[in-house]
Amino acid sequence: MPRFQYVALDARGQESTGSVDANSTNEAIGRLRQAGYFPTGVYEEGKAPAARNGKVKKPRTTPIVAAAAPAAKRKGVSITLFKKQKVKSRVLMIFTRQLATLIDSGLPLLRSLNVLARQERDPVLKRTTEALSDSVQGGNTFSDSLAQHPKIFNDLYVSMVKAGELGGVLEVVLQRLAEFQEKAQKIKGKVLSAMIYPAIVMTMAVAIMGFLLVFIVPRFEAIFKDMLGDKPLPGITIFVISISRFAQSNWAVLIGAGIALIVGIKVLGRTSGGRSLLDQFKLRLPLFGDLIRKTSISRFSRTLGTLVTSGVSILQALNITRD
Q1: From 136, 165, 171, 252, which residue has the greatest number of CB atoms within 10 Å?
Q2: Are residues 195 and 168 in the same domain?
Q3: Which domain holds residue 140?
């Protein structure tokens, strides 16, 4: 069986050389990729000139292109006008836990990414994982590859991975990151569960009030006229009837005002000053203010503690937590 010499990049982007037994060049390339390497040159022993330091020189003809090999493996090309760019927090949490488990089991980073890319069902995360694999194969670090997708991996994610790479404990940091996301998901679920019942009650109350004002109060107005004749009605009754008449004659204006209010809040929330005003308003809410305050303090403490424990400097951790 022929022996092939190779020059390849490992998962950290460092160049290494060696030899592998295979029946053909393609088989040698396949074995190297299965081992977690990205070959930049594979040559049959005795046919490639050696350099002075003993390493194999890369000939100028027929190089193995870094981006071409991974791209050739991708099957199917789809073109859509509107692509979803974000990934649900639960999906990202599962991805992080699976990646941490694979790396902790001794699987190389590159092969772990390829395994997750093949089995991922979320189309956005699948494309992103494939792009991460291509970037790592091209020689970039994992943290630099993650930083290329800021809509999916935030500064917290990237900084923790970078600290893990520098300290050589990437699998430990990924485990902590997965635990952090799982706790955040549990707290989010508890908060939503606590807010669902009051939100349903308030929605039903508004709907019932609108129904009474539009359909029931006008009938009572006719009954009062028949019973009392020209006698004056109590002030509170006149007030309720006036609101009912206004709702009947201006229902389109009320609906438009509600839509305009929602849009205005959305637009206001995109500015720094608007977000500050909205946050102050939320904290002063009689029912939800205390819950929002406690949740925010818990998230701040948990995020800062996770970053500092993972090796991120306190100043950088504070900046990330602030954002």
Answers
A1: 136
A2: no
A3: 89-179
Q: With respect to residue 84, please indicate whether it lies within any of the assigned structural domains.
A: no
Q: DSSP secondary-structure letter at 59?
A: P
160's enclosing H/E stretch is helix 155-167
Tell me the pLDDT tens digit for each residue of 6-54. 877 676 656 778 888 888 877 887 788 778 777 767 778 776 444 434 4
Q: Where are the alpha helices (DSSP H) in 82-141?
A: 89-104, 109-119, 123-137
CA distance 231 to 214: 24
Residue with tokens 């003809």: 61
Name residues of the chain where pLDDT drops below 70.
Answer: 9, 11-14, 40, 47-85, 323
The answer to pTM > 0.90 is: no
Is 100 within 8 Å of 178 (Cβ atoms)?
A: yes
SS3 9: strand
CA distance 99 to 220: 66
Q: Which CATH number fits the domain that encloses residue 159? A: 1.20.81.30
Cα–Cα nearest to 110, from 78, 135, 143: 135
Q: Is residue 15 part of a domain?
A: yes
As a 3-state breakdown, the chain gives helix, strand, coil percent values, each rounded to 5, of 65, 5, 30
Helix (H) or strand (E) holding 44, with range, is: strand 38-44
Asked if 158 and 193 sit in the same domain, the reply is: no
Q: Are residues 37 and 8 in contact, defined by beta-carbon separation less than 8 angstroms? A: yes
Residue type, 150: P
Q: Which two tokens stand for residue 297?
A: 């303090």
